[in-house]
Amino acid sequence: MSKRWVLKQAFDGLPKREDFVLVEENLRSLQDGQITIDTLFLSVDPYMRKMFEPLEENYVNSQLKPPYTMNGMSVGKVIASKNDHFQVGDLVTSNAGWISVANINPEEKVKNVQKLLAIKVSN
After folding, report:
1. pTM of the complete model
2. pLDDT tens per residue across span 13-25
3. Any alpha helices (H) in 65-107, and if so which ranges?
4. What is the pLDDT of residue 118?
5. Which residues contact 67 (CB under 8 A, 6 or more apart)?
6. Which stretches within 11-108 are classed as H helix?
7. What span, in angstroms and rounded, lies between the C-alpha atoms of 105 and 81?
8. Mean of all residue pLDDT scores within the chain
9. Cα–Cα distance for residue pair 96/83, rounded to 1 Å
10. pLDDT digits (tens, 9 = 90+) for 91-111
């Protein structure tokens, strides 16, 4: 089971709980070349505020129209792998968005996934 935060509607002023929805869904089966990431940390950065506001022609996010999964960087732990470059237990960064568990293809769909070689995490 995976959970992801979805922006339901653009907001004006401070964000409100009703602007978001937490969606639970079954994880699809892991395909060859993919890894499953269990998210440990999510990035919430100041630049994201502009992405939440109503769309105008001068916004960078003009291609994003709610509803959409919140985007942002994350740090996660590989919990399953069908990719020779990633082993279970590896720590990675990705731009998979605000999602608790995700199957991704690091060489095709998420190009900025990388091993964090200098960090060790205990179970």
Report:
1. 0.77
2. 777 889 889 999 9
3. none
4. 55
5. 6, 7, 8, 9, 21
6. 48-52
7. 10
8. 79
9. 17
10. 888 888 889 999 998 876 554
Spatial distance between the Cα atoms of 14 and 66, rounded to a whole number of angstroms: 17
Report the distance separating Cα 116 and Cα 45, nearest Å. 21
Cβ 4 vs Cβ 69: under 8 Å: yes
Three-state secondary-structure class, residue 48: helix
Cβ contacts of residue 34 below 8 Å, gap of 6+? Answer: 81, 82, 83, 103, 104, 105
Residue 121 burial class via C-beta count within 10 angstroms: exposed 0-12, middle 13-18, buried 19 and up: exposed
Helix and strand numbers, DSSP H then E, in the chain: 1, 8
Q: Which residue has the tokens 């060790």?
A: 120
Instruction: Provide CATH code, domain 2-115.
Output: 3.90.180.10
Residue 116: half-sphere exposure toward Cβ, Cα within 13 Å? 14
> Position 69: which residue type?
T
- The residue ranges of every structural domain in the chain are 2-115
